[in-house]
Specification:
The complex is a heterodimer. Chain A is an all-beta fold. Chain A has strands spanning 4-7, 10-14, 19-25, 29-37, 43-49, 52-56, 59-64, 69-74, 83-91, 99-101, 105-110. The N and C termini of chain A lie far apart (36 Å). Chain B is built from no helices and eleven strands. Chain B has strands spanning 5-7, 10-13, 19-24, 31-37, 44-50, 53-56, 65-68, 75-79, 88-95, 105-106, 110-114. Chain B is globular, with a radius of gyration of 13 Å. The chains are: A mainly beta, B mainly beta. Chain A binds chain B through residues 4, 30-31, 33, 35, 40-45, 48, 50, 86, 88, 90, 94-99, 101-104, and chain B through 31, 37, 40-45, 48, 50, 55-56, 89, 91, 93, 95, 98-109, 111.
Amino acid sequence: KNEVEQSPQNLTAQEGEFITINCSYSVGISALHWLQQHPGGGIVSLFMLSSGKKKHGRLIATINIQEKHSSLHITASHPRDSAVYICAVSSEETSGSRLTFGEGTQLTVNP
Amino acid sequence: EAGVAQSPRYKIIEKRQSVAFWCNPISGHATLYWYQQILGQGPKLLIQFQNNGVVDDSQLPKDRFSAERLKGVDSTLKIQPAKLEDSAVYLCASSPRGGMGETQYFGPGTRLLVL
């Protein structure tokens, strides 16, 4: 079993829909990261959070430390949101800033 | 501020050949990471440098992979000899200090295909 699991693996939505991507982890963490990866490989950090909720534009990330679960929400989705969304954790059990990654959720938003 | 630079962007080689990738992190960032991302999977850390020293190389296949960051700035990752299963995107990232939970900044990656 992976330490970080995401669901769904693939998600197709219509423009304007509200989208939720889930991440569950099995280790103690110091922080959880949500990352966005566009075709071509480059990765952009969206959020880093260790408690509560963060919002940036149409993106909202929440984390429940007790349940070891985080969600990434996209409101009013747009085709340009199409990308792979990756959850990663900084584990308390590993050295320094090492990240453990989920396998990603491929999001496609159709016009 | 310039981002993390990587080259080449794409590389195609035959198995048993050698290949090298280059990364220049964000200026002033002490910590540099090399990740391997196989298609359909999340990135996997290969090696982490703090300045010019290795912090974590536990997942680096040392029989064929090597990496160096001699002056604590840019870094080279080498594969010698390459195998088919090395086909992946190789991502370089950097962070200011390498502290727990610190944001990492990723380069565009080098896409390697081994035939």
